Amino acid sequence: MALLSAKDREYLTDLFSKEMENKVKLIYFGDSKENCEYCELEVQILDELQELSDKIIVERYNVNDHKDLVEKYEVEMVPALILTLEDGEDRGVRFYGLPSGHEFGTLVQDITTFGKGAKPDLSPNTIEKLKEIDTPVRISVFVTPTCPYCPRAVLTAHNFALINPLIKAEMIEANEFFELSNEFGVSSVPHIVINRNPNTFFIGAYPEAQYLEEVLKAIK
Amino acid sequence: MVHFDLGNISSGPKDYYDILIVGGGPAGLTAAIYAGRAGLTAAVFEKALEGGAVTQTHIVENWPGFTRIEGSELGEKFAEHARSFGAELVTAEVTKITYDNEYKYVHLDNGKVVKGKALVYATGAVPRQLNVPGEKEFRGKGVTYCAACDGYLFSGKDVVVVGGGDSACDEAHFLAKMVKSITIVQNLPYLTAAKVLQDRLFSNKNVKVVYNSLVKEIRGKDKVEEVVVVNNETGEETVIKAEGVFIYVGLVPKSDLLKDIVEVDKFGYIKTNENMETNIPGIYAIGDVRVKNLRQIVTAAADGAIAVEHAAKKYF
After folding, report:
1. From B83, which residue of chain A is nearest by alpha-carbon distance?
2. Contact A45 B7 (CB under 8 A)
3. Is the pLDDT of residue A7 over 90?
4. Contact between A208 and B223 using a beta-carbon 8 Å cutoff
5. Do B121 and B257 form a contact (C-beta atoms < 8 A)?
6. Do B111 and B167 share a domain, yes or no?
7. Range B271-282 average pLDDT
8. A188–B223: do the CB atoms touch at under 8 Å?
């Protein structure tokens, strides 16, 4: 059975045809069902997305068979999804865990952002400050699919990553990666961890300027 | 069952709309529907919850036409309905509202400014805090205001729900399925939730209520470990072991963007006349954020209709 309804497919087909100017690559890493509960579903939703637009290219890899790519894209866990332009160059935008529920909207929004050349809609002031960052920054956004505030926290992080190659931004589905979430003391989402340091985090979907401030504060 | 939701997807807003609507709950989305029907262009600015706080409500049983519908589904239907009448739903946070003789302006957090002829303010209300020691400190470390978001993270654990109204009881019922036990702390000798909600809640074996009690402190080392409650008749203190505290003790209006521009009451609710006009012509306030007797989805929707109908006649 299809995961997307006929109506949703129609909506997305229309959206992609209007919004996408260039091709977008979705690079997926997964594993067998025994090792990855949600991988099969992710493959299915990616297949369904690919069918909706000739501008969406899906590449699928098993983590055990493609060590070179796993290393290249620094894949830590599965399912992993990396968004790039057609050239496959890593722009730091990642999803760990199935982008379902409200996070599906995040994925779609990311796809259209890449489809318009990966130039996110951020204020000039934010862009300027992000460009000034000269140390590696990793933004990990812990989410649950039922959290309506979470997409915004993920999108802001992803948009930040697109501005500066030193910034990597990942969505992490807290239920799927329960142990990791526990390690970081996640009990309310969105929970945003900077540079995988359990002590530099903030909780909530902050507006852009405040979000940036929190990130800058954490790396100071 | 895994869902793939399409909410929160929006393209950037245009520079001008006839009606600017701040807040995408039942009030704002109804305003958008009426704008569309009146042939006016409308944009709804919503930072997170397309459909509003109702999308976080477990079950809704008092919206006519549906004896029982999930809050998330009803919220989605509102959004879909507004879109079908041409409303633009913009995912963005409004950081400032300004106006001059001719236009109203909303300033977005990405720096964009959008202008419109009339502005409808429908931001609703947010959960009230308890203001007890430990609440702020343990926010995100066991203290939460959103069962839908965080409930699963407390699977198999003991939790406390603070409050005895509709929201508290409905959310406690939702949580009862996944957590080990729930202790409800209520300041009165009875719950104030609708009877149907209470009956449903008590069908769960793992729920108990501590009446006449106030939370005094939330304690723990790195995260919540226990909640100290005081009986307000005997003064006796009890310590409840819990890893999670879900707080549902009413709401405070989200009037911060307008409170320096228009008249508000001492609680911060915005004052309007029967047409939903504030004291500034062309600025309307609707839904939970305004002074009114009954804050419900139906009354919020009604406000939206009244405001836009009035604006359409007066300004267009």
Report:
1. A11
2. no
3. no
4. no
5. yes
6. no
7. 98
8. no
With an 8 Å Cβ cutoff, are A186 and B153 in contact? yes
- pLDDT category, B7, cuts 50, 70, 90? low
Q: And the tokens for B160?
A: 């406390």
ipTM metric: 0.81
CATH of the domain at B145: 3.50.50.60
Give A112's contacts in chain B (Cβ within 8 Å). Answer: 9, 11
- Indicate whether this model's pTM tops 0.90: no
φ, ψ of residue A95 to 5 degrees: the values are -125, 120
B95 vs A contacts (CB less than 8 Å): 207, 209
- What is the per-residue pLDDT for B277? 98
How many domains, chain B? Answer: 2
Buried b (16+ CB within 10 A) or exposed e, A135-164: eebbbbbbbbbbbbbbbbbbbbbbbbbbbb
Asked if B19 and B276 count as a contact pair (C-beta separation under 8 A), the reply is no
Question: Which of the listed residues B247, B273, B307 is the one where a domain comes to its end?
Answer: B247
Give the DSSP per-residue string, B168-212.
HHHHHHHHHTTSSEEEEE-SSSS--S-HHHHHHHHTSTTEEEE-S
| Domain hosting residue B29, numbered range | 16-126+251-315
What are B73's two structure tokens? 């589904």
CB B142 within 8 A of CB B221: no
Structural domain includes residue B11? no
pLDDT band at B218 (very low <50, low <70, confident <90, very high): very high
Q: Cα–Cα distance between A195 and A168 in angstroms, integer?
A: 9
Candidates B57, B90, B138, B149, partner chain A, best to mutate (most A CBs within 10 A) = B149
**Contact residues of B toward A, CB < 8 A:** 2-12, 47-50, 55-56, 91, 93, 95, 109-112, 139-144, 146, 148-150, 152-154, 222-223, 244
Interface test mutation site (partner B, options A20, A98, A154, A187, max chain B beta carbons within 10 A): A187
Using an 8 Å CB-CB cutoff, list chain A residues near B2. Answer: 3, 41, 98, 100-101, 145
Cβ neighbours of A146 in B, within 8 Å: 148-149, 152
Per-chain mean pLDDT for chain B:
93
Q: Residue B47: pLDDT band by 50, 70, 90 thresholds?
A: confident
